From TrEMBL:
Annotated GO MF terms: retinal binding; retinol binding
Protein name listed in UniProt: Cellular retinoic acid-binding protein 1
Function per UniProt: Cytosolic CRABPs may regulate the access of retinoic acid to the nuclear retinoic acid receptors.
Domain spans labelled Lipocalin/cytosolic fatty-acid binding: 3-85, 111-233
Family: Belongs to the calycin superfamily. Fatty-acid binding protein (FABP) family.
Alphabetized InterPro entries for the sequence: Calycin, Fatty_acid-bd, ILBP, Lipocln_cytosolic_FA-bd_dom
């Protein structure tokens, strides 16, 4: 019986999966969320239209073609990579041990240096946080740089400017205490989770409906700030 190896590489939403065995090798190169034509040479030699998307922390594939209900789901649990194969009402499950970091299939890689281009409605957001007039005017005129370091689900986010610097470290899925020093100087409870390929933070404290979302489109990093009824992107 063959025991194929999987070699998975990941750059943002661009993923390459190589299935290697002594019989045949299969190479799959795709972008999450973009439909493509897949040639299943070496499997059953059919062609299908394939779309792969994130479902939480799972990769879910739908393969449209001659066989109904065809597709697969990849997920990681500890050091095991799980694969569920579906076709024509039949479900097959496989598990393999991984020698690679689970970061290889993280929903997104935010690591890098990001320079602020615009901050629409930022002053309204600061008003809701009770930031004084002078500080608001300084804040909206600043040129900011964000430096993000990501190690699997562990993040360090540094927001740098000529006025003030702010550093935030967290692990996705683990609640933590945050003191918003240099902003509104409040103590809040924070929880950051994955929502597809977005990082979503809920900040519980004195202000209602407070939080933020980070996501990447192309070569741009987006940040949506919310507090009470104000949304700033």
């Amino acid at each position: 019986m063959l025991k194929p190896d999987k070699d998975i590489s990941h750059d943002g939403d661009h993923i390459v999966i190589k299935t290697l065995s002594t019989f045949k090798n299969y190479h799959m190169d795709f972008h999450v969320g973009k439909e493509f034509e897949e040639d299943l040479s070496g499997v059953d030699d059919r062609k299908c239209m394939t779309t792969i998307s994130w479902d939480g922390d799972k990769l879910v594939c739908v393969q449209k073609g001659e066989i109904e209900g065809r597709g697969w789901t990849h997920s990681v649990d500890g050091d095991e990579l799980h694969l569920e194969l579906r076709a024509g009402g039949v479900v097959s499950k496989q598990s393999t041990h991984t020698s690679a970091s689970p970061a290889a299939i993280m929903p997104a890689d935010f690591s890098g240096k990001w320079i602020l281009e615009n901050n629409d409605i930022f002053e309204e957001y600061l008003k809701v946080l009770d930031i004084d007039f002078a500080t608001r005017k300084i804040a909206i005129s600043l040129s900011q740089t964000k430096v993000i370091s990501q190690d699997e689900d562990k993040f360090t986010v540094k927001t740098l400017s000529t006025f003030r610097n702010y550093e935030l470290s967290f692990t996705v899925g683990v609640e933590f205490d945050e003191h918003t020093k240099g902003l509104d100087n409040r103590n809040i409870k924070c929880l950051v989770t994955w929502e597809g390929d977005k990082l979503v933070c809920t900040q519980k404290g004195e202000k209602a409906n407070r939080g933020w979302k980070h996501w990447i489109e192309g070569d741009k990093l987006f940040l949506e700030l919310t507090c009470e009824d104000v949304v700033c992107v």
